[in-house]
Amino acid sequence: MSTALDTGSPALSIGPIGLSSPVVLAPMAGVTNVAFRTLCRELELARTGTVSGLYVCEMVTARALVERHPTTMHMTTFAPDENPRSMQLYTVDPQYTYAAAKMIVDEGLADHIDMNFGCPVPKVTRKGGGAAIPFKRQLFRKIVAAAVRATEGTDVPVTVKFRIGIDPDHHTHLDAGRIAAEEGVKAVALHARTASQRYSGQADWGEIARLKEHVTDVPVLGNGDIFEPADAVAMMARTGCDGVVVGRGCLGRPWLFAELSAELTGAPMPEAPTLGEVGAIIVRHGELLAAHHGEDKGMREIRKHVAWYLRGFPVGSDVRRSMALVTTVAELRDLVGALPADVPFPTDGHGPRGRQGSPSAVALPHGWLDDPHDDAVATGGEELNSGG
Fold first, then answer.
1. pLDDT-based confidence at residue 349 (cuts at 50, 70, 90)
2. Residue 346: which residues within 8 A CB-CB, separation 6 or more?
């Protein structure tokens, strides 16, 4: 499916998909479901008049997709007007990779497949998945090749996302980028931290620059520490990368994509929202979650977002506590309606959200680092539930 989001030359091309803003929403488990993606797209459209970036759904497991696990199938929901539809696969096995990618193209489930080789969560890496895989160069190659082979002859591009490596002593990103390009992916994305860093410390943008110099055949995207539009400009200027991937910076700030689009395309910068406008966004997010999950689960899901939305605003602990226990959309509306609407966006409302974590040794299968050329699939790696 060829997608042109403007009438001029695209700012970023991923195979046949043209994007007028070189910005990608990073898939985040439990966050980037259809409700959040719809909200980001609505806010970009309302504030800039365009929907210009790529909004990727939360990660789904290849085996669970092939076996049509009900939870996984629900996670693959896209809005009727969502275009392009982007799905991220978690996989450790070339056979399941091929089957899942073939299912996606045969059944028209998505227009773009991204592959997760960057997840640092211990329950993932100790099974030989996520950020553990690129160390096994031949296994990594076989998995990527399987996805590309399954999409051959279609307009569904495959991309991969990975980290610098497992830890400071085991960097793999240059090999991973080279191998992925050789096997036919249409773009690579680097989260400029090692798995052992998790989300702590600073992303090493210098490694994005190294990857860009090393991989010249396909676009290279940078990920890590983009919290403001100026950060995206700085990353692209310093590294030469072709686009940016934004994760934690948009938690509680789904309008960030409108600001990024404006900054990178030269459009007027939208005004930062007041507390009243943020409140309306919270309610809309809650409504979308309730529509997707049902009201009970939707309200449980909105609770974690509320703390991110209200960061820096002078909202009392009683109100915050009540919002953290909200059970109905009507209750959410009432609580939001009591907020002082004209409070401006706080100067300290920016920066990272979510868990930073602390550096730690990466959990790996026994003997995982003994042979980087071993292509054996780790036992049990495909049994993880979707979402990592």
1. low
2. 311, 312, 313, 314
pLDDT for residue 9: 80
Answer for the pair 199, 357: CB distance below 8 angstroms, yes or no: yes
Contact status, residue 382 vs residue 93, Cβ threshold 8 Å? yes
Q: Is the CB of residue 89 less than 8 Å from the CB of residue 112? A: no
Q: What CA–CA distance (Å, rounded) separates 329 from 272?
A: 25
pLDDT tens profile 153-166: 999 999 999 999 99
The catalytic residue among 40, 57, 119, 241 is 119
Question: What is the CB-side half-sphere exposure of residue 113 using CA atoms within 13 A?
Answer: 33
**Sequence-ordered list of residues with C-beta below 8 angstroms from that of 180, at least 6 positions apart, any chain:** 144, 160, 188, 218
Contact of 220 with 213, CB cutoff 8 Å? no
Any catalytic annotation for residue 119?
yes
Q: How many Å apart are CA 6 and CA 358, to the nearest integer? A: 42
- CA-nearest of 214, 222, 248, 179 to 32 is 248
Residue 3 has pLDDT above 60, yes or no: no
The DSSP bridge partners found for residue 18 are: 4, 13
Question: Do residues 384 and 127 make contact, with C-beta atoms less than 8 angstroms apart?
Answer: yes
Strands (E), the chain: 3-4, 12-14, 17-19, 23-25, 54-55, 60-61, 86-90, 112-117, 158-163, 165-167, 170-171, 187-191, 220-223, 243-246
Contact 275, 313 (CB under 8 A): yes
Residue type, 9: S
Which residue, among 218, 269, 214, 212, has the nearest Cα to 236 in the 3D structure?
Answer: 212
Match 């400071």 to its residue by tokens: 168
Inter-residue contact 62 to 69 (CB < 8 Å): no
End-to-end CA distance of the chain: 28
Beta strand pairing call for 3-4 and 12-14: unpaired
Does the predicted TM-score (pTM) go above 0.85? yes
